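Reading a protein record of the kind used here takes little practice once its layout is understood. The reader may check this reading against the record printed directly beneath this paragraph.
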Amino acid sequence: MQATFADFSATPVGVSNAGIRYRHCHEGSSHLAMGADASTELDFEIDGQERIAEVTLKVTALVSKLGGSPGYAPVDVLVNGKALVEGFTVPGGGDLPQDNVLAVPGELLRPGTNTLEIRTGADARSMLRLYRVTLDSVYERGRSERAMAADAARDTVFTYTTERRLPFTSSWRPGPRLLFHVDR
């Protein structure tokens, strides 16, 4: 299976072996923001000659806080229209992105185009911030992350957008741009 990923933390979004569609989402400076009843779909290809026993799916995300409390944005994950997980709560309290790892049984996959859908519940009260999604054969775990790192290592100048928030407030505002050069 080819390295398959969508890196929403990069500008532009980094993709490999994937086409992306989304509904009720908007691109943040380092993530894809998903409100209530939003969905993101990744179409990815599996070679017709491959027989995949299992795929390791890693979704790096956080749910924004509701004031000082943990947020609420239940997530459903579907593969080719079949539910893999329903009502999943991303752990972590909204401070840092969390790696959520799921096993996708080979029976849910087919040769050719497959679709992974990540959707938030209509009852979500805060935002799901989606940073990265990777899909790897169980026998090649980490392949997509290595491919993302290799792509990023080709660059020598990095620009980051920043956000800032005043203490005791919940709204973020654009901050200064961060630019640095790596001398290799």
